[in-house]
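User: Reviewer 2 asked us to show a designed sequence for the structure in our supplementary figure. I'm pasting the structure tokens here. Could you produce the per-position amino acids so we can include them in the response letter?
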């Protein structure tokens, strides 16, 4: 008698074989009209009958658990399916060759085109006949036995929808003490003199809650307030320093494209982005072996070089104690298993109502204190009456011997979850073993791959992509895969497979599938078919591509993303069955023309290919193409020749970029037939389009498009009516994001509903983001205030816009009544608003409603390059971030700041007429933490801190290029929360008030203040000061040595370009500044330094083995440079700590020893 697990395996095989057979049989209908007229039809009918006869034995084969026979059946059906694919491909070729088509249709005997097919058909029929004999005679199977139906996607989806979703469940249970301790460690200042940067490892087995704990700390309000920057990087698949530093930079500057060759170059950019700010960096899931220790050391060195303040903290999560020991610069957090009570709390939270108590108690024993296992078990116990029986079969599974004991709770929980999947979802899960553990997988990509492998069949009710999304959500709900990233709308954009789940997926791969697949990622062999195998799937990701000795005639999936290859596979045109091609992240310069002969292609992925400029011109032949994934901003593609005949691709769903043709015949029906388009679409060269052409595009019918970007060229003589064209391009009301660039019409209508009035007349009611860029002929803005979901609005470069009036908020011409107007607030959910480079904008009027009825949630306001603006509204009750730049008048700034109480960050720059800082900024905003004032040449004074409400919250104060500013507030030292003070190019500033009492100050930077004669007093009380820079202050004559010597936290000291500075007791300072890591001194004589420079060629320290004078008692950690000719034989046993020092030669007599 078979075990429950064996029965489940057989059911899975039955599902796959049944699916393959249905797919094969369905193909007879697709080209039936053509094949019926040829002499192939009779043979194909016989093949159809044989497949149906074999299918009748599958039920009894499952009932008797005849695994070997089922594998034989599956292999033969694979061959039949491949043959049918070839037939269908040949039919498509006949359709493109009229002579051959006519010959095949009219011939009554075998033709050269059909003779070979008939011979292959005979072989397949014979093999199927042999299978039928073997089934009936050898195995004594009976036809027509039905072992039971399997769950369908539709039925299982309905079941899951009836349960509460756990996809958003991030509540942490049983770790409150650990969280409190971790937060305390993150908040405390660094204490270790030799390790100003603290690296805190969280260690424990998989599923113990390391990431959950780190994320809870990362999102904690105290942590958000304490650090200037927070950065989260999921490491998982790589511990290469360059890759991780690149990810950190990507998180800090998402719009910055980085293509650098070394970690050092990336580090330089990182230091620029960090700008001395404090940061909390979380490196999640750092893994490796002993062989990776050198790379870990390099990574650690790179991270240490990022350190600019002793407040910086790094948390890493890892399963490896060795990694933790190598990386740690603080005590480790070792997470222990949860108690039974905590596991019970997790299970009760996840379990469906009505679950029997005995099943929950049984689950607690299975979980063994692992929270993730408890969570998974909670989801499985929701929906199976035979749950405990299946659980026992999983526990007794002999194939888990090689699973480490500590991983078994998770493995068994996931295995049980897998057994509760519908059979169709199981093959989707096992397919994910083609990717490395924890690799980030784009959701669109994995769904497209599932479709290419034939896991879903299209029907008239639901698209295959939607089936894929349903399957993805089932896998997420059952915790077999995890959400990795979300897009700006909160939708899951990528997923990942954990290490233990990856092991399970590998074990659950269908043996027949495994023999036809190869997957190599970064030299790591994940799936390997036998040599000389006929491949269906070939992954070579991040490698130097080698095609080996495999056969590619039946290849369906070719993934060469991120790989290095100079040539396409030999005989590319013979990949007749190819459905999915991925060359993303490669250096390909063209997609070869022969691709247009691969009629089965469903997906082409060529994103992040910066060199790609040439696309196949005859892409219209790819009638099966569903996804054409390229970068809309790829300049090489935009400058090249865009393929014609896109309108013939009626199955197309993904088309990120469309360039309007110059030929009228290729424009009118360009998008009209593409009814299935979805996702993002950018349309360029719209000046070539007429209103008649635009009407034929029928965008209103395409409800799958979520983002649209319309672009007109600026360097064209075309004079089409932009307003009429835009009016005919009205998108569907489900659109979420819209960009108009270089629109040449005088007005933007925003497509009102002609048949409606009042608020109901508004179109685009689902719009979330809107950008209007360089619409230079527009004289007024469209009505935007009534868009109910508009969260971000960006307006830039509208030269003819003179004012923003009441029409910006609501339309007074639609007959709106007062009652209708009061139904919703104006700009009800807007959170970000940018007005940039509106050179002639003179006024921005307030709305004709109460202040609390407009912009109720606006948090960020940016006004830049609006030089003529003279007035602005004051209804911003929730504003937190204000950026005001390149506006002549300070009056609009004062208007905006009236009655504001919520500001946390203010940037004021290039306001030529600003003489006084608006009083409200400092007086009525108690949470203000950052204030920057730059290039305000008329600013003469800053209000006294006695009137500030932010004395306990202001952390950063920057004043730059304010030439007439003669003094700072006398009692600046009362701003006790100040962490950073930066003063630069304030030439009228002669002195700085006392800093006595600023014990929180960590960074003081004074640059290019020509009139400054002395440094502020009270420096000695700045006990937390870590960075001191004095640069370009030619009038400065002295530095208080007593003050400097008490700065025991100082890590970096830079004194440059201070020509009159005559005294610096350098020798004595070195004995006090024990934490100093970086020293840069310029423009001093030997006497100034307080020691005799015997080796005046010293300019940096890259190859230094020892130092002169007082340095010889210091350990040398950094890399130093010196002219070898000036370097004598120093003692080699120096000990000290300086990482970098520069002693410039200016003023030093150069004498060779």
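Assistant: Here is a per-position design you can include in the supplement:
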């Amino acid at each position: 008698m078979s075990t429950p697990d064996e029965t489940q395996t057989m059911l899975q095989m039955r599902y796959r074989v049944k699916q393959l057979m249905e797919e094969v049989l369905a193909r007879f209908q697709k080209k039936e009209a053509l094949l019926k007229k040829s002499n192939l039809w009779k043979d194909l009918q016989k093949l159809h009958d044989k497949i149906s006869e074999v299918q009748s034995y599958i039920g009894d084969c499952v009932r008797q658990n005849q695994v070997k026979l089922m594998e034989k059946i599956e292999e033969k059906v694979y061959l039949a399916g491949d043959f049918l694919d070839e037939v269908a491909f040949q039919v498509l070729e006949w359709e493109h060759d009229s002579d051959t088509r006519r010959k095949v249709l009219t011939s009554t005997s075998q033709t050269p085109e059909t003779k070979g097919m008939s011979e292959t058909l005979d072989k397949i029929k014979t093999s199927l006949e042999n299978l039928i004999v073997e089934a009936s005679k050898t195995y004594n199977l009976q036809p027509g036995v039905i072992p039971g139906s399997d769950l369908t996607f539709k039925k299982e989806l309905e079941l899951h929808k009836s349960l509460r979703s756990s996809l958003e469940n991030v509540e942490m249970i049983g770790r409150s003490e650990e969280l409190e301790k971790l937060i305390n460690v993150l908040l405390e200042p660094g204490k270790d003199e030799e390790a100003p940067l603290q690296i805190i490892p969280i260690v424990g087995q998989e599923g113990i809650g390391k990431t959950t704990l780190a994320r809870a700390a990362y999102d904690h309000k105290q942590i958000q307030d304490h650090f200037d920057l927070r950065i989260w990087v999921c490491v998982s698949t790589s511990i290469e320093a360059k890759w991780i530093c690149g990810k950190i930079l990507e998180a800090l500057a998402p719009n910055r494209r980085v293509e650098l060759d070394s970690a050092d170059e990336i580090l330089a950019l990182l230091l620029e982005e960090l700008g001395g700010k404090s940061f909390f960096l979380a490196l999640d899931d750092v893994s490796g072996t002993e062989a990776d220790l050198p790379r870990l050391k390099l990574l650690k060195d790179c991270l240490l070089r990022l350190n600019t303040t002793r407040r910086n903290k790094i948390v890493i999560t890892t399963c490896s104690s060795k990694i933790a020991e190598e990386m740690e610069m603080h005590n480790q957090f070792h997470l222990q298993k949860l108690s039974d009570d905590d596991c019970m709390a997790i299970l009760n939270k996840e379990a469906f109502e009505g679950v029997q108590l005995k099943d929950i108690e049984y689950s607690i024993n299975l979980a063994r204190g692992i929270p993730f296992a408890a969570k998974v078990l909670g989801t499985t116990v929701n929906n199976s009456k035979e749950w405990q029986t299946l659980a026992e079969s999983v526990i007794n599974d002999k194939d888990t011997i090689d699973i480490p004991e500590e991983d078994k709770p998770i493995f068994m929980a996931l295995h049980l979850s897998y057994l509760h999947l519908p059979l169709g979802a199981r093959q989707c899960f096992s397919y994910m073993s083609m990717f490395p553990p924890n690799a980030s997988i784009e959701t669109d990509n994995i769904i497209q791959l599932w479709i290419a492998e034939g896991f879903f069949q299209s029907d008239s009710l639901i698209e295959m992509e939607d089936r894929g999304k349903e399957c993805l959500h089932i896998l997420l709900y059952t915790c077999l895969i995890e959400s990795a990233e979300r897009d700006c709308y909160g939708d899951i954009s990528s997923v990942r497979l954990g290490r233990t789940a990856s092991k399970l997926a590998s074990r659950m791969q269908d043996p027949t599938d495994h023999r036809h697949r190869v997957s190599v990622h970064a030299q790591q062999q994940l799936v390997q078919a036998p040599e000389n195998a006929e491949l269906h799937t070939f992954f070579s990701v991040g490698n130097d591509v080698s095609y080996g000795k495999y056969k590619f005639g039946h290849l369906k999936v070719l993934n060469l993303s991120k790989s290095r290859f100079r040539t396409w596979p030999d005989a590319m045109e013979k990949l007749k069955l190819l459905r999915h091609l991925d060359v993303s992240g490669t250096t390909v310069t063209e997609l070869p023309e022969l691709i247009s002969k691969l009629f089965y292609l469903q997906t082409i992925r060529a994103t992040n290919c910066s060199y790609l400029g040439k696309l196949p011109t005859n892409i219209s032949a790819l009638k099966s193409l569903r996804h054409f994934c390229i970068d809309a901003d790829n300049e090489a593609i935009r400058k090249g020749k865009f393929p014609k005949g896109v309108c013939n691709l009626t199955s197309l769903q993904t088309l990120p970029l469309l360039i309007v043709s110059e030929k009228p015949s290729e424009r009118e029906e360009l998008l009209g037939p593409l009814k299935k388009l979805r996702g993002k679409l950018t349309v360029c060269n719209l000046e070539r389009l007429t209103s008649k052409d635009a009407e034929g595009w029928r965008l209103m019918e395409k409800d799958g498009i979520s983002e649209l970007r319309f672009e007109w060229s600026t360097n064209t003589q075309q004079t089409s009516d932009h307003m009429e064209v835009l009016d005919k391009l009205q998108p569907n009301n489900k659109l979420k994001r819209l960009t108009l660039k270089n629109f040449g019409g005088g007005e933007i209508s925003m497509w009102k509903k002609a048949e409606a009035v009042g608020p109901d007349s508004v179109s685009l009611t689902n719009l979330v983001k809107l950008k209007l860029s360089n619409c230079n002929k527009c004289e007024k803005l469209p009505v935007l205030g009534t868009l109910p979901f508009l969260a971000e609005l960006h307006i830039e470069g509208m030269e003819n816009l003179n004012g923003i009036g009441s029409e910006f908020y609501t339309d007074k011409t639609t007959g709106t009544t007062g009652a209708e107007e009061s139904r919703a607030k104006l700009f009800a959910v807007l959170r970000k608003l940018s007005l940039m480079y509106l050179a002639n904008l003179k006024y921005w009027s307030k709305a004709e409603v109460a202040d609390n009825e407009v912009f109720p949630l606006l948090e960020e306001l940016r006004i830049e390059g609006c030089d003529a603006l003279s007035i602005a509204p004051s209804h911003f009750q929730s504003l937190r971030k204000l950026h005001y730049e390149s506006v002549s008048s300070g009056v609009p700034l004062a208007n905006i700041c009236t009655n504001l109480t919520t500001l946390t960050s203010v940037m004021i720059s290039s306001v030529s007429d600003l003489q006084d800082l608006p009083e409200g900024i400092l007086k009525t905003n108690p949470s203000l933490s950052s204030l920057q004032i730059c290039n305000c040449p008329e600013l003469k004074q800053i209000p006294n801190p006695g009137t500030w409400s932010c004395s306990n919250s202001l952390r950063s104060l920057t004043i730059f290029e304010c030439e007439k500013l003669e003094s700072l507030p006398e009692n600046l030292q009362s701003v006790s929360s100040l962490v950073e003070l930066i003063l630069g190019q304030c030439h009228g500033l002669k002195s700085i008030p006392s800093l006595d009492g600023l014990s929180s100050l960590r960074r003081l930077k004074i640059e290019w203040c020509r009139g400054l004669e002395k440094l502020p007093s009270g420096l000695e009380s700045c006990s937390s000061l870590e960075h001191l820079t004095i640069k370009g202050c030619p009038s400065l004559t002295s530095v208080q040595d007593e003050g400097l010597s008490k700065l025991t936290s100082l890590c970096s000291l830079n004194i440059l370009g201070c020509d009159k500075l005559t005294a610096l007791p350098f020798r004595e300072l070195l004995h006090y500044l024990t934490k100093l890591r970086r020293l840069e001194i310029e423009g001093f004589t030997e006497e100034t330094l307080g020691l005799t420079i015997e080796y005046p060629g010293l300019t940096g320290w890259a190859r230094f083995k020892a130092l002169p004078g007082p340095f010889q008692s210091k350990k040398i950690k950094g890399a130093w440079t010196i002219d070898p000719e000036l370097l004598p034989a120093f003692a080699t046993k120096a000990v000290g700590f300086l990482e970098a020092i520069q002693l410039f030669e200016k003023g030093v007599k150069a004498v060779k020893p």
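For the response letter, you might also mention the following. The first helix runs from residue 4 to 30. Residues 4-139 form one domain.
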